[in-house]
Design a protein that fits this description.
heterodimer, A: about 750 residues, alpha+beta, Aldehyde Oxidoreductase, domain 3, Aldehyde Oxidoreductase, domain 4, 7-stranded mixed beta sheet, 6-stranded mixed beta sheet, 19 helices, 31 strands, about 25% helix, B: about 300 residues, Uridine Diphospho-n-acetylenolpyruvylglucosamine Reductase, domain 2, Uridine Diphospho-n-acetylenolpyruvylglucosamine Reductase, domain 3, 5-stranded antiparallel beta sheet, 4-stranded antiparallel beta sheet, 11 helices
Chain lengths: ~750, ~300
């Protein structure tokens, strides 16, 4: 490759963001714009007896008022559980659920006005922890009518192959351990924000901070009863998502409705507290994990029972339920394998998808249990893992198709770079090393909403100015997908990156992409973009070959020139463009990506299917103060197999970001609730590690060159978070001899365990 | 709409205070006040910004004593070579507050007078209403203990325990003029009215430390290495007359001072006094039980440092 692919490339929007010029949703202003104020429930579970909006309707600053009954059509990101409403209709299911909304002339007027709405509630029994939700209750106590057997269980996902439980009865070594994980949230910088504009031609434009314009587009149509061709969803610059902006949201429906009602532009931007209340973060989780192995350290079976606390609504919960189990099929070969996940509804803000979706907590559990088994067998934990890795080009027991696999190289790399063999189990008391591996999908092979279309389409347009414009529905949420599009076009056409521009994430002008979730964009959109610009190149070569009377195959595109090796052809890019466009003008070529048919034919076989998987291995070094239980992560060595780093700068950033985010969940972040209310709904009390808490990072990119990825690329945005947490947990054991099975691992928990040990 | 004043002298600030009959708030660094206003915990219509008041002698170290303006920024204190040399305890305490950016605008006076905190009180208005307001707000019970008699909000100043251990006094200016009082007397063991000898209109003007101690010790318990308010701060000195002054904060409604002769103090007695005087409840994100255990750990660590020498 002679172009920018594979070279460290600063993001094309980096300067705009750093100088404050980038336009985020809240930066947009429109004439006569109204502002939304939201009234939220102060009850966790209650029937709505009456809503009195009379006083507010009379307020001259208020242009419109809306309540649940105005837009009662349910929605949700998964078509199998559309259990949400824009505003509570007959009852509220968590403290902070939206009950009513106003559109007013100013933010202050809107916030003041909603306080004038009077709601009468009749409290119902609250379900604040999953254990209660697993029990049978009275029909009118159920959080949702549709749950079965009088229980508040949203979904039970269960798969079992080759009777793992039987293996445990006779296995040489078996370890069973209980784990508990607090909920954590995405903590993106930009709060949720939406602007809706009812246009003169009776169409609706929605500008929103969303990872997935396409699903928002479809759900807006459903809820508002507006034909889908009359809705345009645009995602401007976005300040972080991590999964937290991938659902269609209630405030987006409300803002759009109020714009339709008032025929004026309407804006809604959340406070930080509202962002926390909206949550959709990682589920609080209880895991029973059992793993067995033989005397040589070969893993013989794994079974796990998982309970996840879903909160009041479904979100991605059905997928999360499966991911908690199916993504334990790698990176180790386990033929006797099973899991059951039960997702409960509770009267708390809903949980959903978050970086490393569904697999972070069970990964922690299994990597800790493997460490325990290594100790039982007196085998080095790296050696135990090395023995058990899946090979390349294989199928797992549940028929996940593994293609490229660089996990061995990952582990060998961090082991060598960290001088593991000389350090592990040899450091003084209080100092420790831990290892863990990771495995994640590189894009979900199945769409959320079944259809016959490709998963993504990219258009590449060439015009007289020599500019290539890449049209893609993909959402750059800070991960650099716009930059990737430019890199690929520049690479394929041999032109400088400044000849390429991007139009992205606008459902009116860009072809459909399913969105920025499940680490799918580089793999799927990258392939589609490559196909589109390859076609442009071919079209140009065809025209030039015809005009110059030379063979198409002899024409090269490189370094801003179009030439043949023997120099009979030597054109500048712009000269080549002129020839290509003669007699036809500007043209557009399309590329697309369709995932190959994958998976078995059993129920649940679709979960976890991906055209490729990423792998990783991390080693952490910690210092624990045995007198206080305080832990300091000193250094993390990370190796991640992303297939091929199209932009090594971006991949390193993703790995470093994953370390920071994983560190937070491991040691300090915790959605703390009291009486169903989040107690730390701000960046002061929700304790994200600061720069001074963040360890030194040694990052290595492993390139296994996947046969189906664009230039060999796989994902790097989510996979690297998985090994972070358990490598820290295992290092704490090496340091002070205590097994930390409850996250976050705060000093009080370590202190108590050390005391118990003594 | 409210009023925002920028007086250029303490006299003018006091006059503005008198004119606004209680419905005002002084603003110095403002790093805490802005959050209180956003959460609806502070709703005064008038803000009197004290930043235009010229402070003389921001930091003056003379004959091993210190005079310092209450308007001195925490960053100036932590970076002052004089303070680092003669009163490293104070430099370290100042450096332990908040983050570098906040320390550029937060003042020592503000940190000395920082409002007491509680996980059930320092919340938004909607949050407090939904959970049921507490007695410090508009309710009548303590949400932490369920009791009706006492509010246990915590004093969370990090510089106050350091200054109290250093035997500091403060100069307070009110309508009657200036008054110098020992800093330890400024605090009252009450979660609602946590300051005494301090009229609402009084302005904290100066801080004086009489002498450089013989030895010092400081430690702060928090989850992250920056930003967090204290879960437990312990500052200790042995002065030139061999008096031990240990001040514990973050555990009770006011800083807890233990003052004893170096020669007669025993560790058992020290732990007992600390246990007895700290009215600790579960109103911090770190569990109460752990904070109490850490108080013992910190005291023992101080003890072994000082008495092993």
């Amino acid at each position: 490759m002679s172009g920018p692919v594979g070279k460290a490339t600063p993001y094309i929007d980096g300067v705009q963001k750093a100088t404050g010029q980038a336009m985020y949703t809240d930066d947009f202003r429109y004439p006569n714009m109204l502002y939304v104020g939201l009234l939220r429930s102060s009850y966790a579970h209650a029937k709505i007896k009456n809503i009195d909006i009379k006083a507010v309707e009379a307020d001259p600053a208020v242009a419109a008022v809306a309540i649940g009954k105005d837009i009662p059509v349910s929605f949700g990101v998964l078509p199998i559980s559309p259990d949400e409403n824009a505003m509570a209709v007959d009852k509220v299911r968590y403290v902070g659920e939206i009950v009513a909304a106003v559109a007013a002339e100013s933010i202050e007027a809107a916030q003041k006005a909603v306080q004038g709405i009077k709601v009468k509630y009749e409290p119902i029994r609250e379900f604040l922890n999953p254990a209660d939700s697993l029990e049978t209750c009275a029909p009118d106590e159920q959080i949702h009518d549709h749950t079965k057997n009088g229980k508040n269980i949203h979904k039970t996902a269960e798969l079992r192959f080759n009777d793992p439980e039987k293996e445990f009865e006779s296995a040489d070594f078996v370890r069973k351990e209980k784990f508990k994980f607090a909920g954590v949230t995405h903590a993106f910088t930009e709060p949720h924000s939406t602007i809706a504009i009812w246009n003169g031609d009776e169409t609706l434009t929605v500008i929103s901070a969303t990872q997935v314009p396409h699903y928002l587009h479809k759900n807006l149509s459903k809820v508002l009863g507006l034909p889908i061709h009359k809705i345009q969803v645009k995602k401007p610059t976005l300040g972080g998502g991590f999964g937290g902006k991938s659902d269609p949201f209630a405030h987006e429906m409300i803002t759009a409705y109020l714009s339709m009602k008032t025929k004026r532009p309407v804006k809604c931007t959340f406070s930080r507290e509202e962002v926390f209340i909206t949550n959709h973060g990682r589920h609080p989780t209880d895991i029973d994990m059992t793993v067995s192995c033989d005397k040589k350290g070969n893993i013989t079976a794994l079974d796990t029972d998982v309970i996840i606390d879903g909160g009041a609504y479904g979100s991605f919960g059905v997928v999360t339920s499966y991911y908690n189990g199916v993504l334990l099929q790698g990176p180790y070969k386990i033929d006797k394998f099973g899991f059951r996940t039960r997702r409960t509804y509770t009267n708390k803000p809903q949980c959903g998808a978050m970086r490393g979706h569904g697999a972070v907590n069970p990964r922690y559990a299994v990597e800790i249990v493997l460490d325990m088994l290594a100790h039982d067998l007196k085998i080095d934990p790296c050696d135990l893992r090395m023995k058990n890795f899946l090979p390349e080009n294989t199928l797992t027991v549940g028929q996940l198709r593994i293609t490229s696999n660089g996990v061995k190289e990952c582990l060998e790399t961090v082991r060598k770079k960290s001088d593991w063999d000389e350090r592990y189990n040899k450091l003084p008391y209080g100092h420790g090393r831990g290892v863990a591996c990771g495995f994640f999908i590189s894009g979900s092979a199945l769409p959320i909403i079944w259809n016959r279309y490709p998963q993504t389409v990219v258009h590449a347009k060439l015009d007289f100015d020599g500019r290539i414009v890449m049209f893609s529905g993909a959402s750059d949420i800070g991960q650099g997908s716009d930059t990737m599009l430019v890199q690929i076009a520049a690479e394929e056409l041999g032109i400088p990156m400044d000849f390429v521009q991007v139009e992205a994430a606008d459902t009116k002008t860009t072809p459909v992409d399913l969105g920025s979730y499940s680490s799918r964009v580089t793999f799927m959109v990258g392939n589609a973009a490559k196909m589109a610009v390859e076609k442009v190149r071919k079209e140009m070569a065809k025209a030039i070959a015809k005009e110059k009377g030379i063979a198409i195959d002899s024409i090269k595109f490189n370094d801003g020139k179009i030439f043949t090796k023997d120099e009979t052809l030597d054109l500048s890019w712009v000269e080549g463009v002129e020839i290509a466009m003669a007699g036809r003008g500007a043209f557009v070529e399309s590329g697309f990506y369709i995932s190959p048919k994958l998976g078995g034919d059993f129920k649940g076989s679709g979960a976890g299917l991906s055209p490729a998987y990423s792998f990783g291995a991390f080693i952490s070094e910690v210092v624990v103060d045995p007198e206080t239980g305080e832990v300091n992560v000193e250094k993390i060595w990370a190796a991640h197999d992303c297939g091929k780093a199209l932009n090594p700068l971006a991949v390193e950033g993703q790995i470093e970001g994953s370390i920071h985010m994983g560190l937070g969940q491991a040691l300090s972040e915790d959605m703390r609730y009291v009486k169903g209310q989040i107690m730390n709904a701000n960046f002061f009390d929700y304790r994200i590690p600061y720069s001074v808490d963040t360890p030194e990072m040694d990052v290595t990119i492993i390139e296994s060159n996947d046969g189906e990825g664009p230039y060999g690329a796989k994902e790097a945005g989510e996979g690297p978070i998985h090994p972070v947490l358990p490598s820290i947990g295992n290092a704490i054991f090496d340091a002070v001899g205590v097994r930390m099975c409850e996250l976050p691992i705060t000093p009080d928990k370590i202190f108590t365990k050390i005391k118990e040990l003594k | 709409m409210g009023n925002y004043y920028h007086p250029s002298s303490i006299k003018e600030a006091l006059r503005l205070a008198a004119n606004n009959s209680g419905n005002y708030m002084y603003f110095s660094g403002g790093t805490d006040l802005q959050i209180y206003r956003k959460q609806g915990l502070e709703n005064s219509e008038t803000i009197i910004d004290l930043n235009a008041i010229e402070a003389t002698e921001r930091i003056l170290v003379k004959n091993a004593s210190l005079q310092m303006s209450a308007f001195t920024f925490l960053e100036e204190i932590s970076l002052s070579k004089d303070i680092q040399l003669h009163f490293p305890l104070l430099a370290q305490a100042a450096k332990s507050v908040a983050t570098p950016v906040i320390r550029k605008t937060a003042t020592i006076g503000g940190n000395i007078l920082v409002n007491n905190r509680c996980t059930f009180y320092n919340q938004s208005k909607e949050w407090r209403q939904a959970v049921g307001s507490c007695m410090r707000d508009v309710g009548d019970i303590c949400q932490v203990t369920g009791g009706k008699n006492k509010c246990y909000s915590r004093n969370v100043s990090d510089t106050a325990p350091a200054l109290i251990a250093l035997n500091a006094s403060v100069v307070v200016h009110n309508q009657e003029g200036e008054e110098e009082i020992p800093l330890k007397d400024l605090y009252s063991p009450d979660g609602i009215i946590f300051h005494q000898h301090l009229d609402k209109d009084a302005i904290l003007k100066k801080i004086n430390i009489p002498e450089k101690p013989k030895t010092w010790w400081f430690k702060k318990l928090r989850l992250r290495k920056t930003l967090d308010f204290t879960s437990l701060t312990l500052a200790a000195v042995v002065d030139n007359k061999d008096i031990v002054r240990i001040c514990i904060n973050g555990m009770s409604m006011s800083p807890i001072l233990i003052e004893e002769s170096f020669h007669s103090l025993s560790i058992e007695n020290l732990l007992k006094q600390a246990r007895k005087n700290c009215k600790t409840v579960d109103n911090d994100l770190m569990p109460m039980k752990y904070r109490k255990e850490m108080m013992n750990v910190f005291l023992k660590q101080w003890w072994s440092t000082v008495y092993s020498n």
